[in-house]
Sequence to fold (134 residues):
Amino acid sequence: MGKAKINFEIEEDVLANAKAYVARHGGSLNKLVSALFSQLGQRLDAPDIDPSKKILFDLSCGKISLMEATRLLGFQDAGYTLHLMAEEGLPMKRLSEETIKRQAAESLEAMRECLLPSKDKAKRSTKKTIHQHS
Fold:
């Protein structure tokens, strides 16, 4: 489906609030307005509302957490939820610096646990095992 440009008037304080929301949560005004319009169209056809889109919209608006949305969508990994958010063009609430640092540290730790030992470490480990059994 193609895209259309629209012009409309809005109260300055409402626009300021929308800009502040986008600044706090990331994304753009275009994506925010598009997401809102998309939800309005779905609400007119209430029986056909896709529950997963409502969950994603609630996540985008900050009504529910990423982990809650992931659970409601039936995913085991939040990466799938983030992928759906990107596919729908929905802005994601901006995470705090503390959350970003914590998640990065947890990811690094998980990656290190999954890595195979380097060749040098593997050789040293094999030699130790051989000497211990001799």
Observations:
- Helices lie at 12-25, 29-44, 51-60, 66-73, 78-88, 97-114, 119-133.
- Residues 12-133 form one domain.
